[in-house]
Write a structure and sequence with these properties.
The protein has 124 residues and is mostly helical. It is built from 4 helices and no strands.
Length: 124
């Protein structure tokens, strides 16, 4: 081990990550769509008084989707710098990264359905 933890370096890293989160939601339309969906899910969770286990599953799903969206955005931005003009290989990379977000979003919708559909059916 090299020595004690460098607190200033750690704080700086958190600040950079915070800027990344801010930029993600400020400039990326799909991230804002996921944010709106998250707000809707939280309101529904409070309304239906879901359990701690259900909250945990939803928080994991939300975190996974947002993380995938951030990685997808990073891949797309890097690909645009590496190859500003159209390139079929870059298209495959960007489409595959977007597919990862879609796969996670679909799984999140399924988890949400498993949690909320029975509660909604009982309510209505």
């Amino acid at each position: 081990m090299k020595g004690p933890i460098n607190i200033l370096k750690a704080v700086r890293s958190f600040r950079y990550a915070g800027v990344g989160i801010y930029n993600l939601f400020r400039y990326e339309n799909n991230a804002r769509i996921h944010l709106l969906a998250c707000i809707f899910v939280v309101i529904a969770g409070v309304f239906f008084d879901i359990s701690s286990a259900e909250w945990s599953l939803l928080v994991i799903q939300i975190g996974l989707v947002w993380s995938a969206e951030a990685v997808n955005t990073a891949v797309e931005k890097l690909a645009d710098v590496v190859s500003p003009e159209y390139h079929p290989g870059i298209k495959v990379v960007k489409d595959t990264a977007a597919a990862a977000v879609l796969i996670l979003a679909i799984s999140a919708v399924i988890v949400g359905g498993i949690i909320f559909i029975p509660k909604a059916l009982l309510f209505f």
